[in-house]
Amino acid sequence: xxxxxxxxxxxxxxxxxxxxxxxxxxxxxxxxxxxxxxxxxxxxxxxxxxxxxxxxxxxxxxxxxxxxxxxxxxxxxxxxxxxxxxxxxxxxxxxxxxxxxxxxxxxxxxxxxxxxxxxxxxxxxxxxxxxxxxxxxxxxxxxxxxxxxxxxxxxxxxxxxxxxxxxxxxxxxxxxxxxxxxxxxxxxxxxxxxxxxxxxxxxxxxxxxxxxxxxxxxxxxxxxxxxxxxxxxxxxxxxxxxxxxxxxxxxxxxxxxxxxxxxxxxxxxxxxxxxxxxxxxxxxxxxxxxxxxxxxxxxxxxxxxxxxxxxxx
Length: 313
Ligand SMILES: [Zn+2]
Description:
Blueprint: E1 8-9, E2 25-30, H1 35-42, E3 53-55, E4 61-63, E5 81-86, H2 96-113, E6 127-130, H3 147-150, H4 153-164, E7 179-182, H5 189-195, H6 200-206, E8 220-223, H7 249-260, H8 276-288, H9 302-308
Parallel strand pairs: 1-4, 2-5, 2-6, 3-5
Antiparallel strand pairs: 3-4, 7-8
Bound molecules: zinc ion (ZN).
């Protein structure tokens, strides 16, 4: 998978075809400009610049480069990291919508490439990183994305965890979410994978193994984080899930929570069909959370959904 569903696909010429040798994580940038201006710039071959993803301050999400291709965003960091440019100027914080969008990209990278949902400590680590962490090898962009956004990165990790249904009790900054296994005489990767309810492919990618058959006794292997058998809360099904004609027990479960929160306006129900009463009830929940204008449109979004804590159905 090289294109993220939910992102608007806007391919640009500035990229290295099949140039992504691995995906260690996601790097956050600030455009120091607008989404439209950046979109035009990445289409200009003379710019010699691009990124995989871009967000707008009101919630647009573009994908400019397939994640199997290398984008040109952070010099030596391009081969191993995906990139997200964010609309705004130096010193800005990300908006609520941008936090959600970055969390969606990180959650997607977790699903596709096993990127751990934690902050990366530097270019040789994995997880959520930012441009300046690469230092001069990454172009020396010490002001990208700026200290206010760096301070928001734990919130992105937290939201990404909510999206994939991982517990968020830990701070996300220091826990790797993985455990290790020490290779013993006679072990094979497939046996280790089986014993730990994972796959050879996951172990190979998590440990960046060059030769899966060449295990050495005493070698330490990272194991993927154990996920709970079923998440406690229903993962966000995506905004597009909610439309007239949709019938799902998720909608009933959501409606029951809205009743509990005192936001419900149901005449009958809640029930499994998405109705105007669901939308109006959800709008009241969004307003409760302090959303206004278009952000309180009655269509669930990932962060209001996470806060509602709809039980897993
Ligand atoms: Zn940057």
